[in-house]
Design goal:
Layout (H helix, E strand, L loop, with lengths): L1 E5 L4 H12 L3 E6 L16 E4 L5 H11 L3 E4 L6 H6 L1 H22 L4 E7 L24 H20 L3 E6 L2 E2 L8 H13 L6 E4 L5 E3 L1 E2 H14 L5 E4 L4 E3 H10 L6 E4 L11 E2 L4 H7 L7 H15 L1
Parallel strand pairs: 1-2, 1-4, 2-3, 4-5, 5-6, 6-11, 7-10, 8-13, 9-14
Antiparallel strand pairs: 9-12
C-alpha cells in the first residue's frame, strides 16, 4: 500500500506520516525546495519525499505518476486565517487551484485512489447560538478569505465525486493543536511566549488577540487518527466533522497553559492580533463520523496543552 501526504512537513502532516508508518505502508510526501524538514527529522529516512508545487499542474501530475498512491491525504494549504486577509490571492490560488490540479491530474492519469480532503470548521463561519453543536447540515457562512477557499475545496470535492466518480471523502476539522503546532497559531503562540518568559528571554507580558472567541480543540494525534479512518471507512462523497464536542474560550486556554507554569504575567491585547471579522463560536458534533467509523477523541486537552508547552520549552 502506498500513501501520499501533501503537506507532510507540516503540523498535521508530520503526525499523520508517523501514524502511517506504524501501519506498515509506504509513505510518500510532497515537498517544495523551501520546505522546512524539522517536523519530520525523526522519520525522514523512512519516508519518500517527492518534489511538487501544487500550483503547477505538470508538477502535480508528475508526482502522482511517480507515486501512483492508493490513498491520498490532501493537507497542504495556506492554513493561517489571519494571513488570508493580507494575502487573499495567494490563499485562493494555493488552496483552490492546488486542489483542482490534483483532481485533474488524477483524471488524466486514469487512477482512482481514495482521497481525503482536509477542509475546515471555519467554513461554518457565522453560527447562531441555537445551531451549536454544529452538524454537517449547518449552513456555511464563511467569514474570512481562508474560509471561502475551504468552502470551494469542499464543494469541489463533492462535485468531482458526483461528476467523475473520484473517491473523495471530505473532513471538516475543528481546531487542533499539540507538539509542532506553528508558532503563529494561538495555542502554540501562547505556549512559546510562556516558555520564553520562563527562560528570561521575554518580559513577563503575554500578548493576545481576541480572548472571547470559543473554539473546539482536539489533539492533533486524535485528528490524524480520524484522517486515517476516513480513507478506510469513510463513504466517498460524504463530509464529516472531526471535533471534540467541547468548546473553550481562548482566555480559558491561556489560563490552562499558565497553570502548568509558576510565572506571573500581565496579559496585553494587541490590535494587530485582532481579525477584521471573527467567528464567535465553533463547537462541533462528531456524531456522524463516530457512527460511520467509531472514532472519538481520546487524548485529554490538559495533556495536549502540557505536551505543547514542553515542546516549546525544549526549543527555546
Amino acid at each position: 500500500m502506498k500513501v501520499l501526504i501533501t503537506g507532510i512537513t507540516g503540523f498535521a502532516g508530520s503526525h499523520l506520516a508517523e501514524l502511517a508508518l506504524k501501519k506498515g505502508v509506504d509513505v510518500f510526501g510532497t515537498v517544495r525546495w523551501r520546505s522546512r524538514l524539522e517536523n519530520i527529522e525523526q522519520i525522514k529516512n523512512d519516508v519518500k519525499l517527492v518534489d511538487c508545487d501544487m500550483r503547477d499542474f505538470c508538477s502535480v501530475k508528475s508526482a502522482l505518476k511517480k507515486v501512483n498512491p492508493d490513498y491520498i491525504f490532501h493537507l497542504a494549504a495556506q492554513s493561517f486565517v489571519p494571513s488570508s486577509w493580507s494575502a487573499p490571492h495567494e490563499t485562493m490560488t494555493t488552496n483552490i487551484i492546488g486542489q483542482l490540479n490534483f483532481f485533474e491530474a488524477i483524471r488524466d492519469l486514469g487512477i482512482n485512489p481514495v482521497m481525503q480532503i482536509a477542509c475546515s470548521s471555519e467554513e461554518y463561519g457565522f453560527v447562531h447560538p441555537e445551531e451549536v453543536p454544529i452538524t454537517e447540515e449547518n449552513p456555511l457562512r464563511p467569514l474570512s478569505p481562508y474560509a471561502v477557499s475551504k468552502v470551494a475545496q469542499d464543494m469541489m470535492g463533492y462535485q468531482y465525486y458526483k461528476s467523475y466518480g473520484l473517491k473523495i471523502v471530505r473532513t471538516r476539522g475543528f481546531n487542533h493543536t499539540g507538539p509542532r503546532r506553528g508558532e503563529v497559531f494561538v495555542t502554540s503562540n501562547f505556549a512559546k511566549q510562556i516558555a520564553e518568559i520562563e527562560t528570561g528571554k521575554r518580559e513577563k507580558v503575554i500578548h493576545v488577540g481576541n480572548l472571547d472567541a470559543r473554539r473546539d480543540f482536539s489533539d492533533v494525534r486524535d485528528i490524524v487518527r480520524a484522517y486515517w479512518l476516513t480513507v478506510e471507512k469513510g463513504e466517498p462523497g460524504e463530509v464529516y466533522n472531526v471535533a471534540s464536542g467541547i468548546a473553550y474560550k481562548i482566555s480559558e486556554i491561556l489560563k490552562k497553559l499558565l497553570s502548568f507554569s509558576s510565572i506571573n504575567v500581565d496579559v496585553v491585547q494587541q490590535q494587530e492580533r485582532m481579525r477584521p471579522s471573527d467567528v464567535e463560536v465553533l463547537l462541533g458534533s462528531y456524531e456522524k463520523f463516530n457512527k460511520r467509523t467509531g472514532w472519538k477523541p481520546e487524548i485529554p486537552f490538559d495533556r495536549t496543552l502540557s505536551d505543547l508547552l514542553d515542546y516549546w520549552r525544549a526549543r527555546v
